[in-house]
Amino acid sequence: MTCFTGLSAFPITPASPDGRVDPVALRALIAPLAAAGVDSIGLLGSTGTYAYLSRTERRRALDAALEEAGGRVPVIVGIGALRTDEAVALAQDARAAGAAAGLLAAISYTPLTDEEVFEHFSAIATGSGLPICIYDNPGTTHFRFTPSLVGRLAQVPGIRALKSPAPDSDAVAGQLDALRRAVPAEFRLGFSGDWNAAEAVLAGGEAWYSVAAGLFPEPCLAILRAARAGEAARARALNARMQPLWDLFKEFSSLRVTYAAAHNLGLCRTDPPRPILPLSEPIRNRVAEVVDRLALA
Amino acid sequence: MTCFTGLSAFPITPASPDGRVDPVALRALIAPLAAAGVDSIGLLGSTGTYAYLSRTERRRALDAALEEAGGRVPVIVGIGALRTDEAVALAQDARAAGAAAGLLAAISYTPLTDEEVFEHFSAIATGSGLPICIYDNPGTTHFRFTPSLVGRLAQVPGIRALKSPAPDSDAVAGQLDALRRAVPAEFRLGFSGDWNAAEAVLAGGEAWYSVAAGLFPEPCLAILRAARAGEAARARALNARMQPLWDLFKEFSSLRVTYAAAHNLGLCRTDPPRPILPLSEPIRNRVAEVVDRLALA
Known about the structure:
Order of helices and strands of chain A: EHEHEHEHEHHEHEHEHHHHH
Family (chains A, B): Belongs to the DapA family.
Strand order of the largest sheet of chain A: 1-2-3-4-5-6-7-8
CATH topology of chain A: TIM Barrel
Radius of gyration of chain A: 18 Å
Protein name (chains A, B): Dihydrodipicolinate synthase
Number of strands of chain A: 8
EC number (chains A, B): 4.3.3.7
Number of domains of chain A: 1
Structural class of chain A: alpha/beta
Shape of chain A: globular
Low-confidence stretches of chain A: none
Pfam family, one (chains A, B): DHDPS
Helix content of chain A: 40-55%
InterPro entries (chains A, B): Aldolase_TIM, DapA-like
Mean pLDDT of chain A: 96
Distance between the termini of chain A: 29 Å
Oligomer: homodimer
CATH superfamily of chain A: Aldolase class I
């Protein structure tokens, strides 16, 4: 068991409108995740709005998370930045603070070549000594990692795992096979995209990096444990029960839905960073209805 | 004539590897643009790597550009940022420094809805009082402005112009027509994408926002002036002569080619910000050969 297997729960990061992290509110979100027994905390992921927070505020969030969960649950922290030197500094911060690993996306403005991403990741792994999980998130970065590039990166000391969006169930076995052939045996392959994650774990995915688990860890843990125990029918039944939430995630983005749910439940009064807007009241009501009907809270 | 018509020249922004702008090198790039008689300087555009520079360094670049060109040529400056509050601050900086206008892209990490982009742009225009040109650049932002959204934004006081990528020549008249029907008569429609810009100006585009002109203003001015005078055959012939440069832009990106050309010519010794890598030596040699053959320098 490493921090790159099992269920990784990705909470939102409560912050003021001007981007100052609220460590008390963040700890209140993290405490139940640690208590539920998730395998890791995925701090400052995309849903944790890392891209919108300064280095100072990211360090503030990390310190709070480590104080709350550090002794019990490993913390994987988003270290992505547009500039290589900034990402190196964030990775150094993360290692100094005591994070278990860094989650590194290929954020871009000017579209990047494979060689540029390879050099970017190598510089960050080498410059920090922090264990790194490649964060493949083309929906936000518009860069797509090929198995060949993942294989090259897996040769770089410190680059240990991949988090990629789970494809539809008919494609996941092929994708896992192509990736597995490209990387060493000890390299860990995990998936995001909550709506397809159960099938990805059933197909052999070693981790589920979950937005839903950042607010509702128990039902996600139940799905993951059934899938890892090979109880496919049970995993699928538990997952099917979550479909109304997955449908909201797909329609409005998991980030916006999670903020609305946290708001509805009184867990967090902050909105996402502008320009991202809170969902409208009718949609927030739909989110509340689903959370209530599934007895998630 | 406003700053949103004619030829706008977009230079690169010389900076150190850790992101500190070199004002002397920047002024040396801007002086010949002003002397050539371009209609505006497009400072800190995508090629000017605004997305990779801090607020302090962007202000340093703007002050240098205004000192060099301010009295002679209006300076339009990139004010885009991921956060709304940061973009407001950059727009306020630009207005206080004396920029003629701000160029505002819909930078995103979490993909944005039309409503989010509308609110983002409105907040920046209202919060700064700076005249704003909408910067439609889906190649870097992955957000696409519809004519309908441009029309809504054109109603916001201060939002005055659009810079969008010139489509292929068979599509430009239709695109211009759709946009023109969506905006007030005084709203200015201009184009980027050097390889398609001549046809876009011939079709009625009011400005050419040009990367090539940031280094080679004369041949671009000749094309623009012929096109605006209705001398279509002459404009097309002058443009056809530039095709080897356009081909390099399309293959390697205008940003990377411009850095290589500036390097080859001894105009600027700095590389693009990492993770963007300088072009390899064989490709730099191809760039040098084209610059030499076209007698651009």
